[in-house]
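*** Fold description ***
***
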Amino acid sequence: MFKKMFICLGMLAAFTLFFASCDKKKEEWKGKERTLSIIKPDAVSANHIGEIISRFESEGLRIAALKMVKLDEKGASDFYAVHKGKPFFADLVTFMSSGPVVAIVLEGDNAVLLNREIMGATDPSKATKGTIRSDFAKSISQNAVHGSDSKENAEIEIPFFFTEKEQQSRF
């Protein structure tokens, strides 16, 4: 009888430690900046999803939400509405609705700036060697990834793809 009681107490202690460590991890990520990244149709069709996600994680960003979606022309047009009227808008909408994309909420210290550094310059010929666009982009219009350019835009872009519930911390 005492043996069973000690086993139960040991299990209770183990669960307490486990949940305490989960709370600590949750606290570590609480208040971290979030940004949106999209792996575009060209990089998805070229099977670069895993390599791109690995770069985010190896640089200290955490995946807070992720999904693969197929934008229709209206969805792509709505998402890139800020560019309406610009000469490249129609081609951008056509490209972004040409195949599936992977939408990702990245979380971490200075997530917007860090993501933009990892992506590299919009024009892959000007992107620093070792950045995503330098390594995977085909052209300035098919440049593998999108990233929010500010915290304010991230707050607008993230809800376009993810509900609040889908963004819950994994801890």
